[in-house]
Write a structure and sequence with these properties.
single chain, four-stranded antiparallel β-sheet, three-stranded mixed β-sheet, 7 strands, Phytocyanin_dom
């Protein structure tokens, strides 16, 4: 008898979970807005409500650790994006650091630090 009521109960529970679940789609940000990934992009991220799951659309760059971001050098592990049309989904919580590794570019402001 318990088995006869268990299946409908599980179906109702499954329906409730499916209805209560919301689909979250991140916003796509174009880094640097209409200026793009260029000199002086540093600070572009300030004042923006960038959330985990959001996507950064950018041109070529290296994703680095905080130390490499601060020193404008790629010395540790990094991930290089070179397609010129990269879309990077941000992980939940924490910071992501991006620099241009071409000589002198990071020092001239081609870097951003994004908190999601």
């Amino acid at each position: 008898m318990a088995r006869a009521t268990m299946i409908p109960t599980l179906l109702v529970l499954l329906l409730v979970v499916c209805c209560a679940t919301t689909v979250v789609q991140g916003k796509e940000w174009v880094v640097g807005d209409n200026k793009g990934w260029s000199f002086g992009v540093s600070g572009w991220e300030s004042g923006k409500d960038i959330q985990s799951g959001d996507v950064l659309g950018e041109n070529s760059k290296d994703q680095v650790g905080e130390g490499d971001y601060n020193s404008c050098r790629v010395s540790g592990p990094s991930r290089t994006y070179t397609s010129g049309n990269d879309h990077i989904q941000l992980a939940r919580g924490g910071k992501a650091f991006f620099i241009c590794s071409l000589p002198g570019h990071c020092q001239q402001g081609m870097k951003i630090a994004v908190t999601s």
